[in-house]
Structures are given as structure tokens and as C-alpha cells.
Amino acid sequence: MIITLLTDYGLDDYYVAAMKGVILSRYSKARVIDISHGIEAQNVLSAAYVLLGAYQQFPAGTIHLAVVDPGVGSSRRRIILRTDRYNFVGPDNGLFSLVTPEPVEAFEIQPAAYLPASVSNTFHGRDIFAPVAAALAAGIKPEELGSSIRDPKRLAPLAEVTGSSIKSKIIHIDRFGSAVIGIERRQLNSDVLPRSFAVHAGGAVIEVQKRFYSEEPVVSGEPFVIWGSLNFLEIAVANGSAAAVLKLSCGQEVTLELG
Amino acid sequence: MIITLLTDYGLDDYYVAAMKGVILSRYSKARVIDISHGIEAQNVLSAAYVLLGAYQQFPAGTIHLAVVDPGVGSSRRRIILRTDRYNFVGPDNGLFSLVTPEPVEAFEIQPAAYLPASVSNTFHGRDIFAPVAAALAAGIKPEELGSSIRDPKRLAPLAEVTGSSIKSKIIHIDRFGSAVIGIERRQLNSDVLPRSFAVHAGGAVIEVQKRFYSEEPVVSGEPFVIWGSLNFLEIAVANGSAAAVLKLSCGQEVTLELG
Amino acid sequence: MIITLLTDYGLDDYYVAAMKGVILSRYSKARVIDISHGIEAQNVLSAAYVLLGAYQQFPAGTIHLAVVDPGVGSSRRRIILRTDRYNFVGPDNGLFSLVTPEPVEAFEIQPAAYLPASVSNTFHGRDIFAPVAAALAAGIKPEELGSSIRDPKRLAPLAEVTGSSIKSKIIHIDRFGSAVIGIERRQLNSDVLPRSFAVHAGGAVIEVQKRFYSEEPVVSGEPFVIWGSLNFLEIAVANGSAAAVLKLSCGQEVTLELG
User: Fold this and answer.
1) Residue B154 belongs to a domain
2) Counting beta carbons within 10 angstroms of the beta carbon of residue A140, is it exposed (0 to 12), middle (13 to 18) or buried (19 or more)?
């Protein structure tokens, strides 16, 4: 049984390894695969996007454990969400909004035999979520780990359409400095943006679209938009980092005007 | 059989993968789990702390291989330490001080059939420690890999108590910029610091304690202390990095005055 | 069956996890081991060097999947190379030059039953190379995945000898800031550089050789050369980063004068 891990813990500390040790101690047949531990600290939306990019490639039955958790130690709930193919485990803060339907079967994790007697205030990844994921991998049902709830938290919609204008924001910046915007291909009627369009982001106006990053003509430093591999609109710069060149950061507002 | 890896090699080079290849070539059933490869270069104390945070989560029988090794190529010894639950493999420089009792069964690794004929001067992780860990995983006893020694190196004590004052230093800075101090909860008589206390670190004086990071009131930029998930005292800053805000670095002296 | 992964995708995004999910969904028994995902973006030569450092440690039969691919989406070919011990999968841009003989059995990957019907323009690691690696791991022969070709691309030679002078360049900078030069030990007649030699790099002249990094006398900040663990010449600096101190970067010209 595969358990994937997604956190903002980084890989330099003991946090991720402690979670893996807990999982393997409780269910030795688990196969633990990292999605990412390099999420911008406490950026729940960016984590939701990265999870979206990876989760559906995994076999049915996979347990996706995600912890980006600004509210650790507070009263925010800890949840299990169950879909046709997967179980998701983590804090109830909208992290699973992009990968689960609405409504979705949801359970609030309760103290139980499967959890350690002593739980820290600072590290629920180790003390709660890892034991729960191991229990699910071992075949324990979500019903035995929590009580049914109806209203797991969801993130606000990513884009707002007004006439020929779509307002959204930057939801993720990737390793190459490309800025992902919360606008999806399916929201437009066509694969190609109309002849005349303009993306407004951080003071810049971008009117060039490419199909792949090295498509000719390559003008170093020139920004363009491209449909990324998850079919979200991205702002990229030839031979450079769009985030650096255009001074973009997560959360910044972006508008697409269709001409 | 699980072999964990802890090094300061980083993940960008071939070093860690070469070690994994050596292990899997010599013992194909090994399950290799990374603890961290992002230890500050040659910072043995920080490595000892990270190992402390992860090692005991792993099942009995796990082999913990750690290489943070400023003296590679010199005459420092290479050792195996054996405890009730684990074997530890690495250079003899105090790296295992926080995770092994004193005294501990110790063996100095000797050239043997299990090691390659040719050993580089620069990469004992690949040429010595990985083959030894693979041999241990395959069931070879420490006695067959080395000769018993009595005095493995240990790090100096982390804290010094004088009256109502405890002097220590910063032993690790984590991804979030929290600075871990070498003072443990069990050294105090109470979970809560006394009403009046002061932590002196890098010119700052901290007199606020929190139970969890987001505990109210949250004052952005305000430093506080907190018992971390390993029960060491940490200096943190709300919505920020304590290391950046207070200009803290590993090795810096810290004093806790109990009022 | 082991599949290794080498990319410049970084570990912060979903890219590597998506590839792992694809592989495990198609061949659940695969053991996926990371070589590195921290290659400098689009630096094919640095990737070739890192692959060289790790590949031969893995057991015979291992599939080495590498994607550093400035030309993704363009007409560059996708290839499988087969040697006595391994299969290599990736773009045809010279990435495998340092680890395969010349000539080598080569196949151009063709659309086939093993590939998804829909392939993105931006992410061939997920859509082409991961499915091909999974197919190879499952026992499908390269012949069934592509058509034989004769001229896979190779990188230019790394060093040029003129009399007692060897001209090369910096091919990789490692985590510690050591700069690897494209000059190999076997190109010289002796393990020890002659009494009088000089390495010219970025304005500096280096005339000191060490056998291991901490060899005495250790003069902080002093640059020296050393044979690295792959037997390439490296420029290092005691207690520091050669790249930072001497302002070195990949691609920079270096000359070794033998006296």
C-alpha cells in the first residue's frame, strides 16, 4: 500500500523522517513516496496545487497524507476524506479542495487506540497524521478512526469571470520561476487564447502565448504565457525566471482580458 | 531491513545515490530511508540533533548510517555502535552521542572481505560506511566487521547549570528559522518555565513562552520560546524566522535565567 | 527492478512525484531511487557528470531515467540506450555521453501501446519517459518501444591536450562549492601532479595539490586541487566554497599547465 507525503517541513530536519519511521513501525509493508516537502511555509493553496499535480498518477488505494498546517495546536480539525480511489489525511484547512469533489465523504479524526497516548502541540504530522495513515494502509476504515462530518473546509474559488475578463491570482511558483495562475484551460472555450488577449500581472502586460517553452522565436527575457502540464495558465520567461524578472509572488492578483 | 541515511552531502550531487547503489548492489532487500542530507556542512552537533529527532521512530533492527565527517581521509576511526534496538555506523566524532548510552558497545571498522579493495580518500560514505551498513543488514555481526573499542568519542555536555542560570548554545536551526537550544525539558522541574524567566540570545532578551506556535496573542515579529517536539527549548518568532530576525546561528551562546 | 531518476525538476514541485506515480501505476514492483533532481536547470553536462558518479553503483538490470531537456516539445528525439548492464532512457541531447560506450545500441522511442494517447508539450518526463521506463522494468524490450538508430547525440570532448597544457572547463559545482574540471586522472601519467604545475581558473592560479580535504596544512580560504572521488580534478578551498571564493561557475574555462 502506497502512502504519499506532502508537507512544508523541508528535507533538512528530522520531521519527514520521523513520520516515515512512525509509518514503517506501525505498518512495515507501507511504501512511502514523497510528493514534496518544499511547499512555501504555510502556503495551503500552493500545497493544494502541488497535490493536484501528483495525486491522480498514483494507483487506486493510495493514501495521500498532506500537512501544511498553520493552525497546528489550535482547534482546527484533523480529517480523513474518502473518494472512489483514494483516502486523504491532514488538517481541515482546504488543502484537499482541488482534489476532492463537493460533497465528499469526510471524517473528523478522534483520539483512538490507533493514536499515541501523548500528542505534542507542535508536530501532528508525527503524532496524529502518520499513525492514521499507517492504520488506513493496514486496512482500518475511516469510520473506525473518526466521526462523520459534513462540512470539511474548502478554499475559495480560484478565478472570477466578469464579461471577457477573468480575475485570479498566482497560486504557485515552480522551480524554474514560472508563475502558475488559477485559471484553467477548461474555463475557456478554446485551446488557443484568442488572437488578442492580455495578461496583467505585477505591472506587466503579456500578450504572447507559446505551446512549449523552447518554441521559436526565443527572445531571452521575454515573458509569455503557456498552458502548463496541469492545464493551468502559467507565466514564463524565455531562458529565465518569470518570478524574478517580473517580481511575481504567490497570492499576487492576475487578470486575463480576452479581446 | 531498514537502513537510514543522514549526511551533509546534499541531494544535488551523486553522493547519496552512489551510497544507495552500493547498498542495493550488496543487499538487494535493504529499504533505504533518508533522514536528512541537508545538515549544515560539517556540523556534527546539528547532525546529532537531527538523528535524535528521527532514530527512535524506526523499528528495532534498523541500521542508522550517518556521515558528517570533517576528518575524512585523516586518521579518525570508523565505528559501529550497537544498542538494544539499533546499530549505528559512521565516523568516530561524537555524531552518535545523543542517541547512545554511555558506555555503549563499540567497534572500530577494520579492512575486511566486506569492504572494497580500493578506498578513496574523499568518499568513505560510499567506500566504507555503505558496504558496512549493507553487511549489517545482511546479518553480518559487528564483531565480524571490526574490533571492540572502549572509548568512542562523545560530544561535550550541551548545557551547564550554575545556580538559577543555565548556559548552553544553539545546536540547530530548522527550516522555519526556529533556533534549537541545548536545554531539555527534563532539566527543569516543571513543564512551564517560572513566571519570571529570561532567555538571552544574540543580544536579545526573550521573556515570553508559548505552548504552540499559533497560540494567541500572535504578534508578528515577536520572539518567544517554546518546547519543541523533541523537548528542547526553541526560540521562534511569530510569522517569521527567529534566525533571521535575531541574527542567530549555530554555536551561538544562549543563557536561560530562571527568576 | 530498480529505476533511477535524474532530473533538473527540483523536489519542491509535483513533477518528480508525478513520474513516480506513473511508474508505480504501470509497474507496481518497481523500486524507484532518486539520483538527483537538483541539477542546474537545463545543464546537460552537469547532469551527465552526476549520472557518471552514481550509475555504476547500481545492480545490473537497473534502468536509468534522466531528463534534463532544454528542447522539450521541439523535434529532439527521445531515446533508449542499451549497454551490457543497463538501459538508459531520456532525451537525445548527449546526457548519456559519459556513461555509454561509442558506438552504443540506441533506439528512438516511438508512439506505441505503452504510451498514453495524449502527451503534453511540456512534461515528457511524466508522459513519455516514465511510461517507457516502467515498460522496460516490466520486461518489454527496447526493440518493442522504439526503432534502432545509429547516431545518438554525444557531448564534445571535455578536455583538449596541447603539449604540456590541458584545456578544459568547469563541468559541475558540488554542494560544498568544489568545482569539478573536465580533466580525468587517467589522462595524466601519474597520480600525483608533477612538482610544478598550475591550474588557471577565473583569474586565479592554483599550485597546491592535496590528497584529502583536511590534509595538513589547512590554510582557511586557500584554494587547492584534489582528485575527486570520480577521479576528475577538482578545485576546492579549505573551510570554504571554491565557487564563492574564486567566483567560479559551470562552463568557465580552466587550463592545467604541467611544468
Assistant:
1) no
2) middle
Is B174's CB within 8 Å of A12's CB?
yes
What are the residues facing A65 on neighbouring strands?
A: A5, A89
The model's pLDDT over A210-225, given as tens digits with 9 standing for 90+, comes to 988 888 888 989 999 9
Say whether both A78 and A102 belong to one domain. yes
Q: Which of A111, A110, A105, A109 is nearest to A150 (CA)?
A: A105
Tally of CB atoms within 10 A around A147: 11
**Dist. CA B57–CA A23, nearest whole Å:** 9
- Domain with residue A212: its CATH number is 2.40.30.90
**Nearest chain C Cα distance for residue A228, angstroms:** 7
Dump pLDDT digits (tens) for B182-202: 999 988 866 667 778 999 998
Among A2, A231, B204, smallest CA distance to C22 is for A2
Exposure on the CB side of residue A30, measured as CA atoms within 13 A: 31
B115: nearest Cα among B88, B133, B99, B89: B133
Per-residue cell: C213: 580535504
Q: Are B258 and B194 in contact (CB under 8 A)?
A: yes
Residue C121 has pLDDT above 80, yes or no: no
Domain tally, chain C: 2
Host domain of residue C228: 160-257
Residues of chain A found within 8 Å of residue C11, distances taken between Cβ atoms: 11, 34, 36-38
pLDDT of residue C181: 97
Residues B14 and B62 in one domain: yes
- A24 with A32: CB under 8 angstroms? yes
**CA distance linking residue C30 with residue C3, whole number of Å:** 7
- For residue A218, the distance in angstroms to the closest alpha carbon of chain B comes to 28
pLDDT digits (tens, 9 = 90+) for B156-171: 999 999 988 999 999 9
Amino acid (one-letter) located at A214: S
Residues A57 and A176 in one domain: no
C-beta neighbour count of A34 within 10 angstroms: 20
How far is A66 from A96, CA to CA, in rounded Å? 9
**pTM for this model (two decimals):** 0.95
How many other CB atoms sit within 10 Å of the CB of residue A40? 17
In chain C, what residues touch A225 (CB-CB under 8 Å)? Answer: none
Cα dihedral sign, A127-A130-A131-A133: positive
Q: Comparing A46-55, A102-111, C206-215, which segment has the lowest mean pLDDT?
A: C206-215
B100 pLDDT above the threshold of 90? yes
ipTM above 0.90, yes or no: yes
Smallest CA–CA separation between C258 and chain B, in Å?
Answer: 23
> Does pLDDT of A45 surpass 90?
yes
CB contact under 8 A, B12 and C174: yes
What are the cell numbers at A188? 475557456
How big is the CA angle at B35 (ends B33 and B38), to the nearest 5 degrees? 130
CB-CB neighbors (< 8 A) of C15 in chain A:
53
CA distance A136 to B58: 19
CA end-to-end distance (rounded Å), chain B: 50
Q: Of A41, A4, A61, A179, which is closest to residue C17 (Cα–Cα)?
A: A4
Backbone angles phi, psi at B78, to 5 degrees: -115, 130
Tally the C-alpha atoms within 13 A of residue A70's C-alpha that lie toward its C-beta.
15
Whether omega before C103 lies within 30 degrees of 0, making that bond cis, reads: yes
Which amino acid, B66?
A
pLDDT(C191) > 70? no
